[in-house]
Each structure stands twice: as C-alpha cells, then as structure tokens.
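[09:14] KT: can someone run the structure on this one? pasting the chain below
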Amino acid sequence: MNTAYDAVVELWGTTCRVAVGSRAPVQWYAHTEQTLNAHASRALFAPAPLPDAQAAALTDVQAQLTATFRTATVAVDTLHVLVHPPAALTVQAPLQSTASASACRRALMQQAALLTGARRAQALQLSMTTIDAPLPAPASMQWYRGLVLPHAAHARASEWAEAINADHIAIANSAARTCDASASRQHGWHLGVGCHSSHTEYALWHSDSCAYLYYTPLASTPTDRAYFAALLLNRLRLSESGIAAVWTYGPAAQHAAMMPPIAGVQPRLAQLPHSKTMHRLHASDASGSLHPLRWAAVHSVLASPTS
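[09:31] RB: done, structure tokens below
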C-alpha cells in the first residue's frame, strides 16, 4: 500500500499550526506553530479586496506551509485547511429525505445566505454532507450539514495547495475533524468540547460520525461550558438518551475536571488517536507548544484512514 502524505493547516485567530505527515503509518515529518500579525482565518473568508494586514497574514501562512513542506521532504497528496467558528459558518437542518441532492443544497444555501447577509446564494460555496446519525427528526426527514465558504476562500486556499504541489484540497470545520480514540469505538452518543479562550465549540458524535456542531462565545468558564452543553443536548432531545462520554480538547481543556457533569457524565480530557506518536513529540518539545490537546484537530486528521 502506498503511503499517503498530507499537509494540515489549522487557523485559529492569529495562530497558525502546520504539520506534514503520513496516515499509514501515522508519522509526523515536520510541524510548526506561528503567531501572525492578523487573523488569518478572517482573512481567508473575507471578501476581496483584503486590507494589507490580512493579505500579509495569508502570505505568511503560505510561507510557513512552504517552509514546513520543504523540511518534510515528501510529496503531499492533500492539503487540509481546518478553520474554527465564527470564521467558519456551518449550516445544518433536517430536510425531506425524498428531495434531490440539488434541492437540499439549495435549501442549505438559502439558509447560509440569510445568516451571512449575502445578497445571492451564488456568492457562496457549500460543502454538503449527509449526517448518518439518529438525530431527532420525522421519519420523512434526513439531516444535512454544510460548511459555507465564500468563493474567494477556496481560491485562496488553492494557492497554498499549488505552492506545495498538493493534488487535492479539503477545507473543514476543525470541530468536525477532532475525534476521541476511545469514544469513537463506542456505540451511542458522545460529546466533544473544544475549550478556547474566546469561545467554546461543541461536536456531538454518534459512534464515529460527527452529527451536530455548535459554538458559543458566551462560555469561558468550566461551569458555563457545561451549561451550554446541557442546553444543546436538551434542544436536540438527547439529554436522557444516554451520553456515553464527554471529552475536552483545546488550549483550555485542562480544566475539564472542574466542569460539572453533563447529562450525568463527568467530562475528561480527550484521548487522541495514536496518542503514543503525539506524546513522543510532546516529550521532545521543550517549549510546550506541541501539547497534544492544542494539536488535537491536526493529529485527528493525520490519524484518520479516510481523511
């Protein structure tokens, strides 16, 4: 079997993380983290023309990616770009299961246009996914999710892919790609909680399928994060459905032990796929910047056999 090499760029605020590695076997060849002068994720999604600071941030991302790629000295098949809310807008809804794919796409695009204020849905690009999880819905309905991208965002990311000769490009919501090794092997529901300084992201999973995404800028303490998690589960009528696990990741994830139970389950730190690989990297990293919970999304992509 040929080894698949991927590059991953994760953008959060002024932080840009880049890694180049293989998925079979899981191996990191190069990785860098850089603080930019402007929010690269906002710049990626902003309408043209960009202010000088945002344009410079995108140029810095490409330079960091290119330098990391040269250090790795491997040919990259796919460039994955991971973005966080609120820069990344996700729309999700139950739609008629008999509707055509084009009709479902139009419905999600109309929702996206309303949320973004776009005058025409045609100004946006949408990556649509069928949700294969038993979320509450009438029998005639099927849940769909879409990541909303301005056309300019894909064009800008494509320039990064061209810079490292990547054959493919995939842009995704970071929360939808961050998985927990032990929970994904369990049947039933589990909840991932991304703990960041300015917001909290929630990813509801069913077995190994990401079912629902949510974020709030109003939760910055362990108690608030648990409160909004309970609200989400109540809204989806899942609070009594037996949540098998609640796991946290991100720069502020270490406070998981201080969070009250959610749906009767005490949150714990995420267990990353192939954690031995990450912990070997972390052990050799004197600065602490490679802490596994900070790189959880990047590592989850490289550890996934279906990325």
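[09:33] KT: thanks! Residues 89-144 form one domain.
[09:34] RB: yep, looked fine to me
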